[in-house]
Design brief:
The chain is about 45% helix and about 20% strand. The protein has about 200 residues and is an alpha/beta fold. The strands form two sheets. A five-stranded parallel sheet has the order 2-7-1-8-9, sandwiched between helices. Strands 4-3-6-5 form a four-stranded mixed sheet. A hairpin with a 2-residue loop joins strand 5 and strand 6. It is globular. The structure holds guanosine-5'-monophosphate. The site of guanosine-5'-monophosphate has 13 residues, from strand 5, strand 6 and helix 4.
Length: about 200
């Protein structure tokens, strides 16, 4: 059986990560999703247990103290964490799992979860990122400034990721993301018995 891949995708907000992730999940229905815990309030349309596990700060801290999380981080004033048990279970079943987590969490998984594939989605320019954030109409001026400053900090971490996907055009960016995922599935470490089994045939 092939070993499952942990696929971590990070991006500054406004880079188009959510759209790209949805497309990947639609094309590869077998790809599991790591549902994070968070202390932030649900947004319109979000479902508890599907998009996030929504917890009070106290419940989150209890789970963190119990060692339930593979990684955790504070992002924009809220706590986020990846429950470890479902990740272990899916990987052991040979399933690939997608993680939508920030750079702090990704750095922790780099230390804790061997063989993870790290993909960073970048905007084509800072001007375009700012334009997209304004277009969303979600944030006031101060929040946009905060997100842009945060984006610059996050982008400094991009060089240690395994693949950089520039989202200049959605279709082209999706092709790159897909290629990075498929390439990761072909690594010898993901297919440890392939060569031995082949050599054992007549
Ligand atoms: P949002 O609140 O907009 O859904 O997510 C805000 C940020 O938190 C995004 O960058 C997202 O990738 C990150 N995030 C979501 N879940 C986790 C998690 O479990 N761990 C970490 N470290 N970051 C997360």
């Amino acid at each position: 059986m092939r070993q499952g891949i942990a696929l971590v995708i990070s991006a500054p907000s406004g880079a188009g990560k959510t759209t790209l992730i949805r497309r990947l999940a639609a094309e590869f229905p077998g790809l599991g999703y790591s549902v994070s815990c968070t202390t932030r309030a649900p947004r319109e349309g979000e479902v508890d247990g599907r998009d996030y596990i929504f917890l009070s700060r106290q419940a989150f801290e209890e789970r963190r103290a119990a060692g339930d999380f593979a990684e955790w981080a504070e992002v924009h004033g809220n706590l986020y964490g990846t429950p470890l048990a479902p990740v272990r279970e899916m990987l052991a079943q040979g399933r690939d799992i997608l993680f939508d987590i920030d750079v702090q969490g990704a750095a922790q998984l780099k230390l804790n979860l061997e063989g993870t594939c790290f993909i960073f989605i970048l905007p084509p320019s800072m001007t375009e990122l700012e334009r997209r954030l304004r277009l969303r109409g979600q944030d006031d001026e101060a929040a946009i400034e905060r997100r842009l400053a945060n984006a610059r900090r996050e982008l400094c971490e991009a060089p240690w990721y395994d693949a950089l996907v520039v989202n200049d055009d959605l279709d082209a960016a999706y092709d790159r993301l897909r290629a990075a995922y498929v390439a990761a599935t072909l690594a010898p470490a993901r297919n440890p018995r392939l060569v031995g089994d082949l050599l054992a045939t007549p």
